[in-house]
Amino acid sequence: xxxxxxxxxxxxxxxxxxxxxxxxxxxxxxxxxxxxxxxxxxxxxxxxxxxxxxxxxxxxxxxxxxxxxxxxxxxxxxxxxxxxxxxxxxxxxxxxxxxxxxxxxxxxxxxxxxxxxxxxxxxxxxxxxxxxxxxxxxxxxxxxxxxxxxxxxxxxxxxxxxxxxxxxxxxxxxxxxxxxxxxxxxxxxxxxxxxxxxxxxxxxxxxxxxxxxxxxxxxxxxxxxxxxxxxxxxxxxxxxxxxxxxxxxxxxxxxxxxxxxxxxxxxxxxxxxxxxxxxxxxxxxxxxxxxxxxxxxxxxxxxxxxxxxxxxxxxxxxxxxxxxxxxxxxxxxxxxxxxxxxxxxxxxxxxxxxxxxxxxxxxxxxxxxxxxxxxxxxxxxxxxxxxxxxxxxxxxxxxxxxxxxxxxxxxxxxxxxxxxxxxxxxxxxxxxxxxxxxxxxxxxxxxxxxxxxxxxxxxxxxxxxxxxxxxxxxxxxxxxxxxxxxxxxxxxxx
Length: 494
Known about the structure:
Layout lengths: L1 H4 L1 H18 L4 H12 L3 H8 L8 H13 L2 H22 L4 H8 L2 H9 L4 H14 L8 H11 L3 H20 L7 H22 L6 H5 L8 H16 L8 H21 L4 H20 L6 H4 L1 H13 L13 H9 L1 H28 L5 H10 L6 E5 L5 H7 L3 E3 L4 E3 L14 H11 L5 E6 L10 E9 L7 E8 L2
Parallel strand pairs: 1-4
Antiparallel strand pairs: 2-3, 4-6, 5-6
């Protein structure tokens, strides 16, 4: 029981397993691509320019990774720093939130903090850490706004979903200032803090919005009209944010059941927050903005994306703990207060269910990452070094999936998609063309006069004839959750 009641026990267990998983984890293309952009951008100006073409995210994580690359020079530094962000987040959660001991234990080993936002080094852990820091420092707003404003500005620059959360969390700050100004506040603090948040959001949009020459292709189709299938898919992502499973749209029962559960969860949380209008404002605004973005622009496929609904839920409940009860809403609609009282048991059951489901998902995926490499990049790079092939001229396709190899080997690879040497992939830049294996072999043939021996790396087995080429299979790396690699030694046929 003493272990159960000790926050240090939970943090120590999470940290210990986190270190093991971080050292074991083989970074995949999305992780390594940011490292390569930071590594191979020759100047700060070039790095900033490259961020514009990479996945429509703001640049805070890229800049952090660039600093780590300069200081340490190895991608493991990025992974360790990312794990540290997760541990800081959990420490803030244990130290400053007032959730029950059981809820804290379940949350600690849930999917997002224990696995996705701890082990897989992306920009989402930055947002979790900053959001929890905002919740922890929320009481300081009585003395000064600028510490919170600075964190909100940074939050807006961590990822595109965090921008919507930053806007949403600025709303209760503004409303509280306008509606409950019982004593004068320093205008310098108010104006300066407001400017911090506005500038932070503007900087985020500056990086998120792609350059004009690729705007049409990068932004894709916008859905500003009613589409029932897309609406159902959007609600399904909300459900998945709480329960980690995307409902199968082809099965009517899945769609109906998950939609009802999602709407019920939303209503239960809203009723729970009905006497905490500022926390309710954040919850409604954050979910509304993220849901609107999901419907109108980007339908996410991975838990790391729609997991932001999960963060919003616990941030809203955390903030609610720091406000006194208010009848600002219920005095106009007393029926809502009655429903709130009647729904308390359902709310507690819902939160417990969400935490237990996330615990199961976290333990499952954590164990899977230990058993099956997330990417085969590390194993393939180790083979290349052991076989003394690291100095060979390398041709690799598909370019986006070769990022782990380029990162581990510390060198560039010739990409047929660009007909040039490279490392990272800028997904919004129009200098790439998809190629089939026949075209890859044609370019290899053209390169042989200047490079008589070529190490060919494919992400799928070679399945086309190769006239005029002597191709020797070397190794296949197929044990992976994502990238697989097939290595071939290529010479001109004598």
